[in-house]
Amino acid sequence: MQISKRKQGPGLAWLSAVLAILIMATLALQLSVPARSTDLWWHMALGRHILDSGSLIIDHAQFSWTPATSYHVYNSWLTDIILYRVNEWLGTGGLIALRFLVYFGIVMLAWRHAARLGIAGNPLSWLIILISLTVIWVANEIKPELFSLGFMSIVVWLYYHMRTQGNQAWRLPYLYPFLLVLWINMHGAFFIASLFFACVVAGELLNARFSPDQAMPKKLRKHFLIALGLCIPALLLNPFTYELPLEIMGTLLKNEVAGYSRISAYLPTFIFNFPPHYMLDYLIAAMVLFVFLLWQKLKLRQTDWVVILSFVAYCILFIQMGRTTAYLAPVFLFAALDLLAEKERSWAWPVSLSGQIL
Predict the structure, then answer these.
(1) What is the pLDDT of residues 228-272, one digit of tens each?
(2) Three state DSSP letters for the chain
(3) Among 41, 76, 120, 323, which one has the highest count of C-beta atoms within 10 angstroms of its own C-beta?
């Protein structure tokens, strides 16, 4: 893939700077919210109990006035320990700093990817990052979901990064099984990545058939599929082995989350369309910008099915319940940057072309 390096005018440089400052202000506002989730204290209590007892079998009688079943598959056991240790060593400020590191890490991944594509100076790159941060807003609590957001961002970034490298990146897909081993031991939302992988596989097959110029090189695609196959046994590398993925899948198949109707996180997303969330408004903003960038590419007779399928799939997931909204952010973020990188002949790139680099 060729990456264009473009020369910016002073007006665009100022606009990019203003948007970058706005992004930092948005981050500061989001991350200044205190650690207010009651789930946080429960997770830290579990982490302390696991360390003190040396067992993942939690004695629930310690937290209840009546007898309680002790055995339960805790899919966030490792995160619980991390949260407890961070609070023990650094206090609440350490927990807030941990949240900042995850969010700032996502912004840095996006900035580095935009720089590699040659679009870091384009104001639309910063607008894409800003919209992504607003989409994440509802998920800025300090909970295990924070780690899932980080893992999801790495999963999506890694795919688009491989696309810029071509066949020379054939080793990178093998990072996916290692990421999955960490993720499955830190939070049960690891299954969210399976939707992205399904979109990639289907999209790459469609690209190979209808848009060969957008498809992965054959060598890279082969190693990518092998790596996905290795993700299946990676699911068993946890203290509960097969019980953990089966417990998660069983919850989904039985639709047990429907029983959480009194918990706001499991309610449809429109419930969150109030200050400061406005989740549907943020979704519409992301969709408008995405459609604009996609239309510019379609006008050049270029169709990337991975970009289209993954964005549509996670938009559908977004509207299902508040708890699944944040995972659209990394999909939109890196897909939109990828689309923007192709905009040499539209006003999406109102700058002059100064040269070509590989």
Answers:
(1) 999 999 999 999 899 889 888 877 666 555 455 556 666 677 766
(2) CCEEEEECCHHHHHHHHHHHHHHHHHHHHHHCCCCCCHHHHHHHHHHHHHHHHCCCCCCHHHHCCCCCCCCCCCCCHHHHHHHHHHHHHHHHHHHHHHHHHHHHHHHHHHHHHHHHHCCCCCHHHHHHHHHHHHHHHHHCCCCHHHHHHHHHHHHHHHHHHHHHHHHHHCCHHHHHHHHHHHHHCCCHHHHHHHHHHHHHHHHHHHHHHHCHHHCCCHHHHHHHHHHHHHHHHHCCCCCCCCHHHHHHHHHHHCCHHHHHCCCHHHCCHHHHCCCCCCHHHHHHHHHHHHHHHHHHHHHCCCCCHHHHHHHHHHHHHHHHCHHHHHHHHHHHHHHHHHHHCCCCCCCCCCCEEEEEEC
(3) 76
